Amino acid sequence: MTRTDNGKVALITGGGQGIGQAIAERLHADGFKVAIADLNTATAGAVADALGGKEGGAIALEVNVSDRDSVFAAVDQTVSALGGFDVIVNNAGIAPQSPIEDITPQSIEKIFSINFNGVVWGTQAATKAFRELGHGGRIISAASQAGHVGNPGIALYSATKFAVRGFTQTAARDLAQYGITVNTYAPGIVRTPLMEDLAKKTAESAGQPEEWGWQQFTHGITLDRLSEPSDVAGVVAFLSGPDSSYITGQSIIVDGGMVFN
């Protein structure tokens, strides 16, 4: 099907691989111009090039989501290069193991600076841009199934995702007056490089084969299969589009039926 430009612009952090890449590809297919922002400019550039580059409505940007100025700069560059701004997807994140006894001030600071602070900076930067452009917009952030139910072995990751949900609920109330909706998507176990690394490290630390590591995270999926990044991208596409205009402050779980609320 031929792509038709819908006149909207979206910025996706962590867009160079995994879920972020799938989101960028889906939104672009839906007609958005997309800014693919990532700390890894090589992967971001490859995704943008595959979507046709700037002429095709896709650009790559370098961003460090733990750095407030970097996030604001990425939004400004998006507005300047693509001629507008309508959606931010705060997708970038890390998921290290964090056994309770091994947690340190440094490990707390590192993961919160990326998974939580990056959402705060993205929300601030997007709100500023939307208001300057004189219209509302969509702020969509990565939560997790582990932000609805604490998962074993990843206490800090779960904590950051619970924090993202709480921040999102308040932001939804505070920003509604500007026509801005604020929501999260909460993936389960998705076949991505980040999840592959976590499964391998979980298995290695237990002296077990890699398949055992996957099993620690995948048991209890009602639909009996791992999620693909495109499954999550479909939910983000919904939250980015007109059919979700009356939804705000929510966390949509897309985990194949692991958590039921």
TrEMBL record:
The keyword Lipoprotein does not apply. It is an enzyme of class 1 (oxidoreductase). Keywords: NAD, Oxidoreductase. One of its GO terms (biological process) is acetoin catabolic process. Its EC number is 1.1.1.304. One of its GO terms (molecular function) is diacetyl reductase ((S)-acetoin forming) (NAD+) activity. The keyword NAD applies. It catalyses: (S)-acetoin + NAD(+) = diacetyl + NADH + H(+). Residues 8-217 form the Ketoreductase domain. The active site is at Y157. NAD(+) binds at Q17, G18, I19, D38, N91, Y157, K161, P187, G188, I189, V190, R191, T192. It comes from the Bacteria. Belongs to the short-chain dehydrogenases/reductases (SDR) family. This is Diacetyl reductase [(S)-acetoin forming].
